[in-house]
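pls design
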C-alpha cells in the first residue's frame, strides 16, 4: 500500500480535496465568503467523495440606508480679535469675538425597527455658535523674585437655527439613562443642541391623603390617582389633569455659561513653583448609575440610603420598588449642576546649579509634581468633567458612570549641559 492508500485515500479523492481547497482559497481571496463556515473532509476510498458543509448563508447587507440627496456639511466663521501688550510687556491682554455657523449639519436620526438597518445620514439643519474669549496676564520681577499670573474666560452660546423636518426638532435616543427611560435630549430650533428635556417634579408623595388632594383645577379630579406613597409628584404643566408627554419641558443645558482657567508661576533664586487649573460654570449634567431594572436587590450608590422609606423620610428620592414611572419618566431628579474648578497641576522644583555654581552643568533641577490633586464641585457624581453623549454623537453632558480622572504623583530630574 502506498502511504495515501494506507490513510484510506485514493489519488482521485486527494485530487478532489486539493481542487476544493484551491477553489475555496480563491473565493476567500475574492472576499465572497462573508461569515460562512466551510469545512471539507474526505471519506474512505470506497466513497471517493468530498463533502462541503455551509453552516450559514453567504451574503451581505448595507449597514445604513443610502441618501442620494446628501450634501457636505459646511461652516462659516467670523473672528474679530485684539492682542495687546502694555507697561514694557508686563501686562498682556487678548480678546476674541467669533460667530460660527454650521450649515447642512450631518446627523443620523433614530432608525425605525421595521427598516432592518441603520438610518441614513441626512442634512439635519443649521447650528450657530457665538462667543467671546478674554485673557489677561501679568509678569514681573522684584529682585530675585519673579512671578507670572494669567487668567482666561470664555462664553459660548449654542443655538439650533433650523431643523430640516416638519417638526422642527430631532428627538434623542430613549433608554440611555436606564432601561425603558424616556428620551431626554433634543435638537430643537431656538434651543441649545442636545438640551435636556423632561418632567418637572414637586417632591414625593408622603401619604394617601396627599395623593387624593393633588387635584386638577381643570377637572376637579386627582392628577395622579394611581400613585402610591413614596412616588414622585410630577408637575402637570399643561393643566389638563393628567401627566402626559406634553408636560415635558426644558430641564437643563449641558453647555456651560462660562469656562475659565488660571496659571500661576513663581520663582525665587533656584526655587520654582507653578499651578494650573480650569473650570466651568452654568451647565447641567444628567446622571444615572442605575443598572436599569429597579429591583430592590440591584446595586445602587449610597445615595439611595436617602430614599423614601416612610412618611417624612425623603422629599426628593422615591421609594425603591415604587411605580415604574418614578425613574422611567426622565425628570429633574436626574439633573444636577455641573460647576467645578479643577487644579490640574502643582509643581515644585529646585535648580541645584544655583546652590553649586561650579557644577559642570547648566541646569540640575529636581522637581515633584501632582496632577489633578483637587477638584472643587458640588456635583455628586464621580467626575463633573463629562463629555459622554449617550446614544447620539451630538449629545453631551451625560454621566453613566464615566471613569474619573486619576491623580498622579511624579518626581523628576532635569539635566542640561
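designed seq:
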Amino acid at each position: 500500500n502506498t502511504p495515501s492508500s494506507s490513510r484510506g485515500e485514493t489519488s482521485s479523492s486527494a485530487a478532489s480535496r486539493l481542487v476544493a481547497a484551491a477553489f475555496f482559497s480563491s473565493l476567500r481571496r475574492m472576499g465572497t465568503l462573508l461569515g460562512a463556515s466551510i469545512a471539507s473532509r474526505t471519506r474512505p476510498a470506497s466513497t471517493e467523495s468530498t463533502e462541503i458543509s455551509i453552516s450559514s448563508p453567504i451574503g451581505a447587507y448595507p449597514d445604513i440606508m443610502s441618501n442620494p440627496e446628501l450634501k457636505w456639511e459646511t461652516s462659516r466663521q467670523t473672528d474679530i480679535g485684539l492682542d495687546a501688550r502694555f507697561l514694557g510687556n508686563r501686562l498682556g491682554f487678548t480678546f476674541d469675538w467669533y460667530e460660527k455657523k454650521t450649515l447642512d449639519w450631518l446627523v443620523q436620526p433614530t432608525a425605525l425597527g421595521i427598516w432592518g438597518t441603520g438610518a441614513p445620514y441626512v442634512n439635519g439643519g443649521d447650528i450657530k455658535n457665538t462667543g467671546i474669549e478674554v485673557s489677561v496676564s501679568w509678569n514681573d520681577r522684584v529682585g530675585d523674585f519673579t512671578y507670572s499670573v494669567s487668567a482666561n474666560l470664555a462664553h459660548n452660546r449654542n443655538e439650533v437655527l433650523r431643523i430640516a423636518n416638519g417638526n422642527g426638532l430631532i428627538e434623542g435616543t430613549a433608554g440611555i439613562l436606564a432601561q425603558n427611560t424616556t428620551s431626554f435630549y433634543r435638537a430643537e430650533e431656538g434651543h441649545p443642541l442636545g438640551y435636556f428635556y423632561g418632567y418637572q417634579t414637586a417632591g414625593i408623595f408622603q401619604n394617601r391623603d396627599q395623593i387624593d388632594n393633588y387635584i386638577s383645577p381643570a377637572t376637579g379630579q386627582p392628577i395622579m390617582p394611581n400613585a402610591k406613597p413614596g412616588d414622585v409628584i410630577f408637575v402637570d404643566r399643561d393643566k389638563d389633569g393628567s401627566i402626559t408627554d406634553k408636560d415635558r419641558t426644558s430641564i437643563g443645558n449641558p453647555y456651560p455659561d462660562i469656562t475659565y482657567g488660571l496659571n500661576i508661576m513663581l520663582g525665587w533664586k533656584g526655587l520654582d513653583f507653578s499651578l494650573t487649573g480650569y473650570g466651568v460654570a452654568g451647565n447641567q449634567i444628567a446622571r444615572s448609575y442605575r443598572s436599569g431594572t429597579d429591583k430592590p436587590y440591584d446595586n445602587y450608590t449610597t445615595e439611595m440610603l436617602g430614599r423614601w422609606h416612610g412618611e417624612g423620610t425623603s422629599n426628593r428620592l422615591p421609594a425603591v420598588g415604587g411605580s415604574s414611572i418614578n425613574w422611567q419618566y426622565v425628570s429633574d431628579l436626574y439633573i444636577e449642576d455641573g460647576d467645578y474648578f479643577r487644579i490640574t497641576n502643582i509643581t515644585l522644583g529646585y535648580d541645584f546649579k544655583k546652590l553649586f555654581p561650579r557644577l559642570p552643568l547648566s541646569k540640575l533641577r529636581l522637581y515633584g509634581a501632582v496632577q489633578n490633586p483637587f477638584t472643587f464641585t458640588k456635583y455628586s457624581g464621580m467626575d463633573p468633567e463629562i463629555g459622554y453623549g449617550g446614544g447620539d454623537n451630538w449629545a453631551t453632558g451625560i454621566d453613566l458612570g464615566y471613569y474619573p480622572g486619576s491623580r498622579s504623583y511624579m518626581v523628576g530630574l532635569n539635566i542640561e549641559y
